[in-house]
Amino acid sequence: MGNLLLEKDQEWAKQFGQPIVIAGPCSAESEEQMLETARRMDKNYINIFRAGIWKPRTKPGSFEGVGEIGLKWLNNVKKETGFKTATEIANAEHAKLALEYDIDYLWIGARSTVSPFIVQEIAEALKGTKKPVIVKNPVNPDLELWIGALERLAAQGIENLGVIHRGFSTYKKTKYRNKPKWQMALDFKKRLPKIPMLIDPSHIAGNRELLYEVSQQAFDLEYDGIMIESHRNPDEAWSDASQQVTPERVLEIIKAIQLRMHSSDNSAYNSALQTLRYEIDELDQGLLDALAHRMKVSERIGLLKKENNVAIYQPNRWDELLEKAKLDGEKSGLSTEMVEKIYKAIHQASIEIQSKIMIDKK
Ligand code: PEP
Ligand code: MN
C-alpha cells in the first residue's frame, strides 16, 4: 500500500495534456442551473464539471444539498455537454450512490478527511474502484491525517488518487477563509511526490478577489490542477455565494495563470541561478554561525542569572526585544510576521538552554 502511494504513476491526472481544471457550482440547485453553468464553460480549458449534492454546513438550517436527484442532473450535464463529472461523498451511502450513478471523479471533503471512521467507511464502500478519488486536506493542519486517509483508500485497492489543498481553519480572522499552508503542501509533495495535488482557491479565498492570486501561487509551486467554484449567477448561489464566480470569469482566471516549467535548459538561466544559489548557501551558513554564537551568549547569560539567583524569563526584556526586531525588520523590508516567528523560535531555544543550566546541579 505504501508502495502504491510511492510508486504508481497517476495517469488519470495527465490524461488532459494540461493541468486538470474542475469547475462548477458549490451546490447543485436545479437541473437548469447546472446545465446553464456547464453550457457556459469552455471545454478547451475546463475538463471536469463539479457540483456538491450533499453539503456539509457549519450551521444547521443552511441549505444541505439536493441529495440523490442531483446525481441524475450531473449525468444529464455529462450527456448534453460531454463534461466528466465530480461530486463530494461524505459517507458510505453517498459513495455507493455515486458509484451507482457512475460519477467520474469523487472527492472527500475537508470535514470528512478529519474523521478516520468516515474515511474508512468510504474506502470500504469504494473498494477496488478505478475511479479517481481526490482527498481534500483535513480542516486542521495534520499531514499524517491527510496521508493516512490516502493509505486507507489504497488499502482497499483504490489506486487512482489525488489531493486538494483547500486551506485550514484558523480561530484568528485572516484575509483568507481558510489559510493556505504552502509549506505543508510542499512537505506532502516531498513525502508522496507521485500523488497529484490540486488547488482549491475558492475555499481558501472565501471571496472573489483572491482567487487568481491563490491559484497563481499554487501553480508557481507546480500544482497539477485546480478545482474552482462557478455559478451561473454567483450572487444568488444557495451556498458560498461570496466566493463563486461566473463561468466566464473562471476562464479569465485560468487563462491568466502562468504555468511555470519545472526547469529550463537555457544555459544563461542555469548559470545565473547557480550563482544566486551559492550566494544563498553562504548567507545561510552565516545565519547558522550567528545562531550558534547567539546560543553561546545565552548560555553565559544563563550562568550569570543562576549565580545571582535571577529568573530566566524576563517579560519586559522579551517584549522590548521583539518590538525592536519587528520595527528594524520592517525598515529593512522584512515581514513582521516572519520576524516574529523567527524570534519566537530563537527565544524559545534560548530559554531551553538557560533552563538546563538552572537545573544543572554543577
Ligand atoms: C466543497 O468543495 O464544496 C466543499 C464543501 O469543500 P471543503 O470540503 O473544502 O469545505
Ligand atoms: Mn463550497
How would you describe this structure to a colleague?
The N and C termini lie far apart (52 Å). The longest helix has 41 residues, at 267-307. This protein has an eight-stranded parallel barrel, surrounded by six helices. Helix 6 packs parallel to helix 7 and helix 13 runs antiparallel to helix 14. The protein has 362 residues and is an alpha/beta fold. It has 14 helices and eight strands. The mean pLDDT is 94. It is 50% helix and 9% strand. Residues 26, 52, 56, 88, 109-111, 136, 166, 200, 203 line the site of phosphoenolpyruvate.
Question: Can you give keywords for this protein?
Answer:
362 residues; alpha/beta; 8-stranded parallel β-barrel; 8 strands; 50% helix; binds phosphoenolpyruvate; binds manganese (II) ion
